[in-house]
Design brief:
By secondary structure, the protein is an all-alpha fold. It has 2 domains: 52 residues, Orthogonal Bundle (Arc Repressor Mutant, subunit A); 133 residues, Tetracycline Repressor, domain 2. It is 75% helix and 0% strand. Helix 8 packs across helix 10. The longest helix has 25 residues.
Length: 232
């Protein structure tokens, strides 16, 4: 009897422990944890300089383990880039348009894509967008590496896809100049409409905005180049 009881106890100790070994990796509530980390990072990056915000502080603010922050986002710079990104991913919108659009219709298509992606969220973007922009500007002023990161993001994710569409029409230098000027116009327009939320643009119907600005952006991208001023 003693032997049988001892063996039964051993079976109870070893069997279940093997079957219930902890699983590694994200759990079902991972989406909530990730969102909490992003919210915490955005708050801390807005309130403090980039160098003053630690991964440990972000984890503490989010109520998660520091290792989970690194699991989802890697480095602090990677987390910063995602937390402080503009809403609805301008780089994703531009990439989708440039993958399927020719040079002759690029201006109108880009503006319509931004309107379709962002309309209906003006209040939401105005509420949280000003803080986002504040954090980006603060980081760029105080942290040279942040400025370089934003510069690289603009070039690779926002300008280069437009250049690829224009390269068949112009030499590379001209295509890059047109893409850069066009991007400045595009982002300036939509920052004013959606993030700053100025009334005249925020209240303008989307299709009217497309009708007004589509031809103007198209002119920048593919219209005749202005005569260069004669020096001296």
């Amino acid at each position: 009897m003693t032997t049988t009881a001892r063996n039964a106890g051993a079976a109870d100790t070893t069997g279940p422990s093997r079957r219930t070994a902890p699983r590694r990796g994200p759990r079902p509530e991972s989406g909530q944890a990730r969102a909490a980390i992003l919210a915490a990072a955005r708050t801390l990056f807005v309130d403090s300089e980039f160098s003053a915000v630690s991964m440990r502080a972000i984890a503490r603010e989010a109520g998660v383990d520091t290792g989970l922050v690194r699991y989802y986002f890697g480095t602090k710079q990677d987390l910063y880039n995602e937390a402080m990104a503009l809403p609805s991913g301008p780089h994703l919108i531009i990439a989708r348009v440039c993958d399927r659009c020719d040079a002759d219709h690029l201006g109108e298509t880009l503006i319509r894509a931004f309107v379709q992606a962002w309309d209906g969220h003006v209040g939401e973007f105005t509420e949280r967008g000003s803080a986002t922009l504040q954090g980006v500007v603060q980081a760029m002023v105080t942290q040279p590496e942040a400025f370089e990161q934003v510069n690289e993001l603009y070039q690779k994710a926002l300008i280069d896809p437009i250049v690829a569409v224009l390269d068949d029409r112009f030499d590379h230098a001209e295509a890059e100049l047109r893409a850069t000027i066009g991007l400045a116009r595009l982002l300036g327009l939509f920052t004013t409409r959606y993030i700053v939320g100025l009334d005249a643009l925020a209240q303008l119907p989307g299709e009217e905005l497309v009708a007004r600005e589509g031809p103007c952006l198209q002119q920048v991208l593919t219209g005749p180049a202005p005569d260069r001023p004669v020096s001296g």
